[in-house]
Amino acid sequence: MWRAPLQGNSMAGLSLELIGLQLFAGLALGSVYVLLAIGLSLIFGMLTVVNFAHGAFFMLGAYVGLWLLSIGVNFWICLVAVPLIVGGFGLAVERVLIRPLYGRGIDYPLLLTFGLSYIIIELVRIVFGKSGYPVDTPALLQGAVDIGVGYFPLYRLFVMAVTGVILIGLWLFLERTSYGLIIRAGARDPQIVRVLGVNIARVWLMVFGLGCGIAGLGGLLAAPLQGVIPEMGGPILAEAFVVTVVGGMGSLLGAVLAGLLVGVVVSITSLFAPEMAKVAIFALMAVVLLIRPQGFFGRAGLMS
Amino acid sequence: MTYTVEKAAMTRLPKDGLMDMAYRHRVLLSAVFLLVFPLLVPFKALAVNILIYGLYALGFNLLFGYLGLLSFGHSALFGAGSYACGILLVHYGMPWWAGLLLGTVAGGAMAGIIGMFAIRTSGIYFAMVTLALSQCVYYIFYQATGLTGGENGLRGVNVSDISIFGLHLYFVDPVTRYYVVAACVILALFFLSRILASPFGAVIEATRENEARARASGYDVRRVRLVTFILSGGFCGLAGALQAIHLSIVPIETMHYETSGLVVMMALLGGMGTFFGPFIGAAVFLLLENVVSLWTVHWQLFVGAVFVLCVLFFPRGIWGSVLHWVKK
C-alpha cells in the first residue's frame, strides 16, 4: 500500500488540519478498497463465488496500464481500455474455468481462483520481470489543490472522483436498467429467473467480467500511488476481504461504506502509530465479527 | 462433497478383509513405510521436508477434509509453532524437546485465538476471515523484529546433539535427523488416528455432513469446530517446530499466505478427507517441485496449473482416487 502523505509525526505537530488531510487521504485509499470490494461483492452476490484471483486481476490492471502507457497510449484512453481488457480476460476465465464448477460445492471455485492467481502472477513475472516499476502520475493530474484544510494531491482527488463515477454508474445500471433488474433478480433467485426465460449463465458471465474489470481499473488507479509489482495483489486481497466481511458479503452499500471506513482507519492509525496501521484493519474486522458477524449490511443467512 | 461420504462409508465398513486390516493398522503400516522411505528418496533433506509438510497437511486435512472448513490461514498456525520453537531455543536456551512441545502448544493457542473470531462465521466467510487474520499475524511477526528477526527471519535455531533417555544422537547427521522427525510424525499419526476413531471423530464428520442434524442431535457445533481447529493447530504447530529445528532458521515466509496455499494444494493433490492423502500430496508436490525447478525458475506457474487442473478434473486427489478405484 502507498504511504499516507504525512506519517508518524510527533504528537506536537498534530492539528485539526493535519487530521483533516489525513482523513481525505484515508478516503482516497478507501476508494481503491471500494473498487475491489464492490467487484468481490457483486460476484459473490450473483454467483456465490468468492474470487480469490481478485487481487491478481487488480495487479493485472496495473500491469496492462503500465504496458499501454509504455507504448504511448494516453492515460485517459487507458482508463477505458484497461477495464475492458481485464474484464475481457475475466469473461474468458468465467466461461472456461468457473462455469464447469457450478453446482459442485462452494469451495471449488474458491480453490480454482486461488490456483489461477498463481498462474496470473507468474505469467506477469515472465513477461514483465520480477522487480516492480514506478508509474508516473499523469501530467495533467500532478500537483496539489487547496481543499480548505490544506493542500491535497490532485491525483488522489481524481481517484476518489473516478470511484464516485463508477459507483453512480453502477447504481444507475443496477437500479435503472432492465439488465440491472435481471441481475438483481438473479441474485435473489436464479431458478425463477431461469424459468422466466432469461439466460442466467450469460448474466453470470457478464457480472464476473464486470467485477474483474472494476478490479483492473482499481489496479490502474493505484499504480501511480504505489508503483507496480507482481505481488501487489496479495495484501490488498486480504484487505478487500476485510472490507467485504465488515460491510457484509453481497451488499454493495456495505462494500462502499466499509471500504471508506477501512481506508480512514488505516490512514488515521498511520498518523498516530504508523507501525500499527496494517494491524488496525484486522482489529476492526475482529471487533465487527464479535459484535455483528454478518457485517454492517450482510444477510445472516448468507453465512452458512 | 458426496465422494467423501462414500469414502467414509468404505473405510468404516470395508468390503474385504485385507482393506479392513490395512485400515485397522494404518499407523503401524505408516511407521513401517516411514522406516524404509528414506531409501526411496533422492536425498535425505527432501525426505525430512516431505515428513514435515506431510504433517502440516495432515493438520490442515483434519479441518478441511474431516470437518469441511476451508481455512486459508494455516500459515499462521504453522508459523506460530515454528516461531515459538525458534524463540524458545534462541532467546531462552530451552532444550529441543521443550521447543517441539511448546511449538505444538503455540500452534494450538494460535488456532484458539484465530478460531475465536473465525468460528463465528462459516462457509465461504471462514476462508476469507482466516486469510485476513493470518495476514494480520504476518504483519505482527514482521514488526516484532526484536523477537522474530523480522524480515531476515529468526536465525540460529541450532540443534546439534540430542539425547533421549541416555541415548545420544548426532542431529546434524541427515539420517538421524530423518528418524527423529519420523518418530514425531508417527506419534502424531497415532494421535490423529485415535481422534478419528473416537466418538469425537464421528461428531467431526457428522458436523461436516449435516450441520443442522448434528446440532439437533445435541452437539454444540461451534465448539466442535473450535476444538477441531485447535487440534489442527497443534499438528501444524508441531510441523512448524520441526521445520524450525530442521532448517536452523525461521524465515518470515513461513507466515506468508503462500504457505497456507501450499498446504491447501498438498491436501487437494493427495486427497482431502483421507488418512494418507495429505502425506502423499506433500510427497508428490515436493518431488515434483524438486524435478520441475531444475528446468524452470517459474515453478509457481506449474503450481497454479496443477491446482486448477486438480480442481477441474481431479477433485478426489491421488489417494482419494485410489480408494475410489479399489472400492469399485
The rounded Rg of chain A comes to 19 Å
Distance between the first and last residues' Cα of chain B: 18 Å
Q: Label the overall shape of chain B.
A: globular
How do the SSEs of chain B run, as a string of H and E? HHHHHHHHEEEHHHHEHHHH
Description:
The complex is a heterodimer of chains A (304) and B (328). Chain A is mostly helical. Chain A has a domain at 32-140 and 165-230. Helix content of chain A is 70%, strand content 2%. Chain A is built from eleven helices and two strands. Chain A has a two-stranded antiparallel sheet with strand order 1-2. In chain A, a hairpin with a 4-residue loop joins strand 1 and strand 2. Chain A is globular. In chain A, 51% of the residues are buried. Chain B is mainly alpha-helical. Chain B has one domain (2-327): ABC transporter involved in vitamin B12 uptake, BtuC. Helix content of chain B is 75%, strand content 4%. Chain B contains 16 helices and four strands. Chain B has helices at 2-12, 17-24, 26-36, 44-67, 74-91, 96-118, 124-143, 145-148, 174-197, 199-209, 211-216, 221-247, 257-270, 277-295, 299-313, 317-327; strands spanning 154-155, 161-164, 167-170, 249-250. Chain B has a two-stranded antiparallel sheet. A two-stranded antiparallel ribbon of chain B has the order 2-3. In chain B, helix 5 crosses helix 12 (221-247). Chain B is globular, with a radius of gyration of 19 Å. The chains are: A mainly alpha (304), B mainly alpha (328). Chains A and B meet through helix 4, helix 9 and helix 11 of A and helix 7, helix 13 and helix 15 of B.
